[in-house]
Amino acid sequence: MPVEFLTDEQAAAYAAYSGAPSRAELERFFFLDDADRELIEGKRRAHNRLGFAVQLTTVRYLGVFPDDPADVPAEVADYLAEQLGIADASVLKAYGERENTRLAHVRELRRGLEYTEFAEREAELRSWVDARAWTTGEGPKALFDAAVSWLRERRVLLPGVTTLTRLVASVREAANHRLWETLYGLLNVGQRAVLDSLLTVPPGERVSELDRLRRGPVRISGPQMKWALQRAREIAELGMGELDVSAIPPRRLAELSRYGVDGKASLLRRHGDSRRLATLLATTVYLTSRAVDDALDLLEVLIATKLLARAERETAKEKLKTLPQVERASAKLATAFQVVLETTSEQVDVGTGEVTGPKVETVAAMWEQIEAVVPREELAAAIAALFELTPPLDSDADEAWRAMLVSRFGTVRPFLKLLVEVVDFGATPEGMPVLKALKSLPGMMGRKKVGPAEIDTGLLVGSWRRLVLSAPHLEPGTVDWKAYTFCVLESFHRMLRSKQVFARNSSKWGDPRAKLLDGAAWEQAKPTVLASLGLPEHADEHLQARAALLDGTYREVATRVPENSQVVFDDDGRLHFAALEPEPEPASLLDLRAAVGAMLPRVDLPEVLLEVFSWTGADQAFTSVTGGEARLRDLHVTIAALLVAHGCNVGYTPVIGGVDALKYGRLSHVDQTYLRLATYRAANAALIDYQASIPLAQAWGGGLVASVDGMRFVVPVPSVYARPNPRYWPTRRGGATWLNMLNDQAAGLGGKVVAGTPRDSLYVLDVLYDRDGGRRPEMIVTDTASYSDIVFGLLTLAGYTYAPQLADLPDQKMWRIDRTADYGAFTDAARGRIDLARVERHWEDILRIIGSIHTGAVRAYDVIRMLSRDGRPTPLGGAIAHYGRISKTLHILRLADEPGYRRQIKVQANLQEGRHALARKIFHGKNGQLYQRYQDGMEDQIGALGLVLNAVVLFNTRYMDAAVTQLRTDGFDVRDEDVARLSPFTRHHINMLGRYSFQLPDLPGGLRPLRDPDAVEEG
User: What's in the keyword line of the UniProt record (predicted)?
Assistant: First the structure.
């Protein structure tokens, strides 16, 4: 049974002091309250009183009574002695002279503090660990730490380290076996054979059936769309999606399926029956919906880029080609018509006012004048050319590209029938006509004649009506069913994106309304949600308070406008801000920055990772996806190498070495088995917590301000999960965006990879709710393009202060509730009206929406798309937008009134830019381009980059903190305001190129020696 999941250092630190407690820990665990003093005061001698206090506080801090109370950190003894009025803490040495006294005190404390022995609660702990292991699938170290916390909270004395590690390992092992046996028991004999057949390699093939099925579509084309739907149908026909796996915790099922998706078939074959088939079942259940997700992802990008966008581009090119001909023909017509006007209109002498008749009196004479400048045959040719090259008068701007689109019917022909057969579509009442039309399309394909009665003419908007009903080649009484197909597909594409058409057998493209909390589930969750978010069940008083806040803020800020040089109103009453002047950098800051930078030790990137692991234990978060295998020797070295390979985008070659931990086979095994998004996030949480404990990071901020911004990556390989955008990648290649969150302590709290460059506002809430660790931020900064009134409303409801930058401020409407209120200089700017009655009418649904997001029942992205249709909010979306406009206007007023608020937003935005610049330097391989084809691969590689980025920042922060401390000791002029402006994104001292050192030197003091700033140039 594997129990070797603790390192020697971790085992030694268990239930023991590992250095002096921090000041915060001293104040939390070692402060003596009145009850403590009452217990202590009964002891007569100073050494007994101090020794008793040490025992009391140590058991509270460590969970055990110390074997030798005199062997505690001096800081603990001094802190307790000061509280007890004992002048000399060294009297503690006398406490250990009588063992009976210490044991009597232990018995007294056990009774008084109600501590129990481990044996009395062992069964209860086993049940608790079992429930946690069954639900979460956490690694043994995480379960061990949770068990220690459980024991401490319940005042149970900690057992020996071996006892607890064996308990955790055995319970976790049993939970894993129960998981496998439960899933295995759902299968009949035939289903087991079907699943086992997935691991076989068919004759003439190079890969197993599982390998084939788990590979998603890559290229964006009609044939690939057909293949994606056939794959989805084939996986569905395995029948595993019909099994009831609801008894399995979703997280465990997801972890098991991830192993099946990523692991080698040869490795899966080695496992016993229950484990192998349980993994295959979880994998096929996952792939059943994932294959439909993949197909609809491909369909969405195919319609958007290969059909609609390409038709528009090609139409624009054709227009450019014909432009000279149209210009010449138009010039001739204009010249001829000018002659008509001049010769057939009455003539007025501007000097005398005398009016005379037209120059010509007959049509023949007029034509004689026209032909003098434009021959009649040239004029006829010009008219014919214009009729040929320009749309009819009753056409619209879309007709040309829509007609071009119809010529690409061959792209959609292969998959239309499969689409409606494989995907189980549903629709809202608004989307139902489009869905019915979509399902009718296969029946029209290949027919020579389709009548108007067979189509839904209500869908024929704009130029589609002409193209479908009145195309020149149509026989009377027929329609162009190919044009109708594209009319339906255009509407379907729009409805699918707004979730008015959805797929029941898809997780990503499913109906978000079905996921919203409702009925008993909502009533059960409602009290907790409202208490957590501080929202009332009834809106009236809450809305009146918000209205009073807005009204009062308008009036208060208006009184200060005359003295505010940063605010200007134009002639239309619109608000403008003067540009923020950059903060000057005093000589003291420049000197401090140079001195600190010169003191940072020079290291290779892998050494940074290994040293950070030694501080934080973050490498312990990388647990095997296969379950209970013992950890490999020097696993932390292999993990560091893989983080460099992926985070620097350089692959295995630069990190391969002669030792076992750096050989190719070991790297490949650990990569597939230990590195995944869940372990990246768990490791990142350890780094975030450690960063927050460093005094320098605390000087930068309290962790309550965060920003969310996107970093763009070119994806040069064919991928469904990339989108084109000429602004960010000028060529036709697509790209992806890493939306990441950074707090004001320079710690990256998490992120999300999304295709292309969508509006960040669609994902901000999802990123906030899915952070890896750290304190929950209160104020959220984003760039100008990352907001909408609906997002303002949702973020405010979720308890965040939303602070987007507003570069286009004059175009932003300010909002009021009272139409008649006089807000001074803001009266004209406040031209929008907030309808509180609308908000109150929808309040229950608003609470249900934010409650569903808050509890994780539904993604905020899906909700935001659901709340808008064709760029316009639904009635519920409009109510949330009206609520959000209160916060938006308060934000604008604060921007106008508080230059410090504007500067705080700018500083946080600059911090994020600095992080992205460092990320670019780290992710330097392959020209900084992302070569992952699938979303999972993108998330894993960017997860590695985020972890390496946080490790570098943590390394820099700790050494910069040590440098600042050393400079202060040396008498350097260190000012607090300058310390707060130091940046942890420096990189000159870290080697990120070439081959690397994986040797971590001995660090007796916990840190490398700082360099001498005066000797830097000599090096």
Answer: DNA recombination, DNA-binding, Transposition
